Amino acid sequence: MIHRLTALAPIALAGISLLASPAYSQDVKLPPTMVVTAYDTGTAGFNISVGIGKMMKDKYGTDVRVLPAGNDVARLAPLRAKRAAMSGMGSGSYFAQEGVFEFGTKEWGPQALQLVLSTVDCNAASLGVAKDTGVTEIKQLKGKRVGFVVGSPALNQNALAVLAFGDLKQSDVKVVEFSSYGAMWKGMVNNDVDAAFATTITGPAKELETSPRGIVWPPLPPGDKAGWERVKKVGSFFFPHVATCGAGITKDKPVELGNYPYPIFVSYGSLAADEVYAITKAMITGYDAYKDSAPGAGGLAADRQTKNWVIPVHPGAVKALKEAGHWSAEQETHNNALFKRQQVLATAWADYGKSSPPSDDKAFLDGWMKARAAALTKASMPNGFE
Prior knowledge:
By secondary structure, the chain is an alpha/beta fold. It folds into two domains: 6-120 and 262-342, Periplasmic binding protein-like II (D-Maltodextrin-Binding Protein, domain 2, 3-Layer(aba) Sandwich); 125-259, D-Maltodextrin-Binding Protein, domain 2 (3-Layer(aba) Sandwich), CATH 3.40.190. It has twelve helices and twelve strands. The protein has helices at residues 44-60, 72-80, 92-98, 153-165, 181-189, 203-210, 225-234, 273-285, 287-290, 315-323, 329-353, 361-378, and strands at residues 33-38, 63-68, 86-89, 113-118, 125-130, 145-149, 174-178, 195-199, 215-216, 239-243, 255-259, 264-268. The strands form four sheets. It has a five-stranded mixed β-sheet with strand order 2-1-3-12-4, sandwiched between helices. Strands 8-5-9 form a three-stranded antiparallel β-sheet, sandwiched between helices. It is globular. The protein starts with 32 loop residues before the first strand and ends in an 8-residue tail after the last helix.
């Protein structure tokens, strides 16, 4: 694989050792320096990573550098090059594992990402809708303007997954494209678009709430089994969740929406189990020191981990969770099945590379998606991107 790190070349990442150093604690041996990648400065993922880094510095003497990156490829490139240990990702972690969208290129393909810890808190992630549209149900978005962000398949796929709950496809709405997430939400305030995807606690959603347009979050009731089956076909990483915080949402006025963990701290499967164990154990034992450092950090508690999700938990993290008393035989079985899925995808990618695939990027991706689908079908595994 080609490592495209030219954009990160000016950043002084050299000399970072992921090997254990003399411990500040008898049972946790962290390296003296560690790099973590995250979403842009000011995002929940970045802020939570900074909180964890401060805990590691205060408790274990480890200097943690949080490297912000604007997209999933940029977040994972330092990990793949072994210049960072961990990344605070979103749904892009699943897309990377599956080798789809921006990871369906010759340079990438399926990535063997594995979970460290992730957080689900009081917020949810769904389509925020301008209140002045009168929309109260997802199906009522038919014919409405829905925001997409150019070059951000994660955001766009998430929007399509929520639309699927109302039995709507992309062709049923008017897609309005924006250059960035921030621009899309400014478009909501400026009445250039009617709905946009976000987490309920994002700052731009709060701005819309206080604007003349207002905001609503059309519910995705878990009792609507058919609706949720449609969601899962487009975004298999979503699950029903009751939001009790966010723009226009309180504990007294909760909303049944969809959610997935964010941030999702991941490492590569190739990172040694003892190193991931030390990182995970530090995050578990040091939880009280960072749980209030940023909105959402509280969801990183060992007893609040999302069970049986779509990405396997790293063996090092499994060891730490077992010691904390938060691992079960059922999870072990599910985790082993996900490891098998990663093997099936890796083999399919290798076989596709040997088949003289087309050089054109679009044709290459189309061919890979067919090969991927065939391999998963043969292994009796769900596609996830039908």
